[in-house]
Design goal:
The chain is of the alpha/beta class and about 300 residues long. It has helices at about 5-15, 30-40, 55-60, 80-90, 105-110, 150-165, 190-200, 215-220, 225-230, 245-260, 285-300, and strands at about 20-25, 45-50, 70-75, 95-100, 125-130, 135-140, 175-180, 210-215, 240-245, 265-270, 275. β2, α3 (about 55-60) and β3 (about 70-75) form a beta-alpha-beta unit. The relative contact order is 0.17.
């Protein structure tokens, strides 16, 4: 069965019988409040807004957003991240959502050895991308956390992303190990590493997915590119997962698609003890809802 997308995620979230309690780090943002209002009205969540209460209420009033069924926990400055993560750690919330707070502030609390959300797994960002024009949907990782992952870290990111794909109903996810070329070259270490991972997969590791690489983005994305280059394989033109060699290539790619293509996307952190809705402060209401729907599916899977 192939990987499904946002339409089914919304349908399943609408059909859910239990609301997830979500701690929101930095609730003083109109798009955050609007997304949460919609999610609350649809029966998805019970939000706990962490941030400066007067500012939250001021924004809600100015934006005509009702705060019914919202809980507000007043916090300011560095305490916002600590309080939000603490709610998840103590069982007061089932998921964490990034709001009006910088990534370094939030990740400082998430990564805290004593009070954070560490599990021993590599923490990474996984983005679900849908491009309706081409009827394509795929996961990209790691797009936000690991700058230059080691081989072992990439393997853990691979495992986490496969888990997300399986939560999205993909029985045997197709994984593309991305590089600038499909040729293995010693001058391009990521191609050598990709070939090593493929060899290990052929030896029986990671039997819950199909892996090919190195593959350029066009080969992973479009069957036509494979035809023109005369390159075949079950992943060519059909990748469910695109695994990048480093943060620079992943982040630039995902943002280029976000801002230039007609697409839908949402992102979460994996490797944490609870799902973390993790996208940019510049993102839209729809993107925040998409990310929430993805996190809820992971929470229920």
């Amino acid at each position: 069965m192939g990987m499904d997308g946002f339409q089914r995620l919304y349908h399943d979230a609408d059909q859910g019988t239990k609301r997830a309690i979500v701690a929101v780090a930095g609730g003083d943002d109109p798009t955050v409040l609007e997304a949460l209002r919609t999610a609350c009205d649809r029966g998805w969540v019970r939000p706990i807004l962490v941030g400066p209460e007067p500012r939250i209420r001021e924004i809600a009033l100015a934006s005509a957003i009702a705060l019914d069924d919202f809980v507000i926990r007043h916090a300011e400055g560095g305490a916002i991240a600590a309080v939000s993560v603490g709610l998840v750690c103590t069982g007061g919330a089932q998921a964490l959502m990034k709001g009006q707070i910088s990534t370094p502030e939030l990740m400082g609390a998430v990564l805290d050895h004593d009070t954070g959300l560490r599990t021993g797994r590599v923490i990474c960002q996984v983005v679900l991308m849908e491009i309706p024009r081409d009827r394509r949907r795929f996961l990209l990782a790691d797009t936000g956390i690991c700058v230059q992952p080691s081989l072992d870290e990439r393997i853990d990111i691979l495992k986490s992303t496969v888990e997300v794909a399986q939560a999205l109903w993909a029985d045997l996810p197709k994984v593309a190990l991305l590089a600038a070329t499909e040729a293995v070259k010693s001058s391009m270490p990521e191609t050598v590493e990709a070939a090593l991972l493929v060899h290990r997969h052929q030896q029986g590791e990671w039997g819950d997915c199909l892996i090919e690489g190195p593959l350029s983005f066009d080969l992973a994305y479009a069957a036509g590119a494979g035809n023109k280059k005369r390159i075949e394989g079950p992943v060519v033109g059909a990748a469910d997962i695109m695994l990048f060699p480093n943060l620079v290539s992943a982040n630039l790619t995902v943002k280029a698609i976000m801002y230039t293509a007609d697409c839908r996307f949402g992102g979460v952190l994996k490797g944490t003890s609870a799902p973390v809705v993790f996208m940019s402060r510049a993102d839209s209401v729809e993107t925040r809802l998409d990310s929430l729907a993805l996190a809820l599916r992971i929470l229920d899977h």
